């Protein structure tokens, strides 16, 4: 069945819903994603648009997006000049989205489109931020469960923002919230944290992640660590303050050892233990270099912010009225 014609495409009115999905080398998922979204949104009887953001793919992803846009006026495409990253692709989609509400989701179909009507219902009940929480399936690895628990626990502790384990980039945002997020100047975007930080009335809907439809995940262990690190640095200065506490702790230890050496000297005893002294010195130098690394990470973030470069560069668009 063909999707209904979107009146907003002809009148210029703001559609009720925008769906944003970033794609990076997802040639095998574009068709299935578009079909699933059409089958979910068409029966709702609302005006909508689907924005597919090609994050510098090297396969046929952009060709398939253009073909989908040509066959359905609801679908719009944005192609980056190169890969700018998942969070920037989400931000670009939010920047171009015109809907009264904006749903963001991944393009590999692990975020089930069938959950979107529940998000819309919660939005209509007055929630301006409708988050989702992934429920781990039985085949989720122990390593993924453990690292997820660690990350959200550490992030919540250091930032003061209580993010539940399983929080994802699958969410609905009211237009007011989207406009707020578009004004954020963070050099390292972490939209999961920002959508919580802005406040507003919010709720959370659980979902069961589906298996990846095609292809492989683009998040290697290194990219996950880098993403987690930049997210923590973006929301917390606690690591900087950690240097003060470690400095005080090591100073107390050093003072205690000096007192011990002085007392032993007054008693006429030499204080042996070159190995222990070298161990303490190595330990303190290790802490020092860790703190220098933390300072360097924050300075690097400040440097990126001061450069004020755009978050993304668009090479081509499809389906927009002025395209």
Outline the structure in words.
This protein is an alpha/beta fold. Helices cover 49% and strands 15% of the residues. It is built from eleven helices and eight strands. It has an eight-stranded mixed sheet, sandwiched between helices. Helix 10 (238-266) packs antiparallel against helix 11 (274-307). The longest helix has 34 residues, at 274-307.
The counted number of beta strands is 8
Oligomeric state of the chains?
A: single chain
- The CATH topology of the largest domain is Spore Coat Polysaccharide Biosynthesis Protein SpsA, Chain A
Number of domains: 2
Could you say which overall geometry the principal axes of the C-alpha atoms support?
Answer: elongated
Query: What is the H level of CATH, i.e. the homologous superfamily of the largest domain?
Result: Spore Coat Polysaccharide Biosynthesis Protein SpsA, Chain A
Instruction: Provide the residue-averaged pLDDT.
Output: 77
């Amino acid at each position: 069945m063909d999707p209904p014609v979107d009146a907003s495409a002809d009148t210029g009115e703001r559609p009720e819903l925008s769906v944003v999905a970033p794609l990076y080398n997802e040639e095998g998922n574009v068709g299935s994603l578009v079909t699933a979204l059409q089958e979910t949104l068409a029966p709702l009887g609302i005006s909508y648009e689907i924005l597919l953001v090609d994050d510098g793919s090297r396969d046929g992803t952009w060709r398939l997006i253009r073909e989908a846009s040509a066959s359905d006026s609801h679908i719009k495409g944005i192609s980056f000049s190169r890969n700018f990253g998942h969070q920037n692709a989400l931000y670009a989609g939010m920047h171009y989205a015109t809907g009264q509400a904006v749903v963001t989701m991944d393009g590999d179909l692990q975020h089930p489109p069938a959950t979107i009507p529940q998000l819309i219902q919660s939005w209509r009940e007055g929630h301006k931020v409708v988050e989702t929480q992934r429920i781990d399936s039985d085949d989720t690895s122990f390593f993924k469960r453990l690292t997820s628990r660690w990350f959200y626990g550490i992030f919540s502790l250091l930032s003061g923002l209580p993010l539940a384990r399983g929080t994802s980039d699958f969410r609905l945002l009211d237009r007011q919230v989207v406009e707020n997020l578009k004004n954020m100047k963070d050099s390292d975007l972490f939209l999961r944290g920002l959508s919580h930080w802005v406040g507003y009335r919010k709720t959370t809907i659980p979902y069961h992640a589906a298996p990846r439809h095609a292809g492989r995940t683009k998040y290697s262990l290194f990219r996950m660590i880098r993403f987690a690190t930049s997210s923590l640095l973006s929301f917390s200065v606690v690591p900087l303050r950690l240097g003060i506490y470690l400095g005080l702790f090591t100073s107390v230890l050093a003072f205690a050892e000096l007192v011990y050496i002085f007392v032993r000297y007054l008693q006429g005893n030499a204080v042996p233990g070159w190995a222990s002294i070298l161990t303490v010195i190595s330990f303190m130098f290790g802490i020092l270099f860790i703190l220098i690394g933390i300072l360097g990470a924050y300075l690097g973030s400040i440097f990126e912010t001061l450069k004020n470069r755009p978050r993304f560069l668009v090479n081509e668009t499809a389906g927009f009225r002025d395209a």
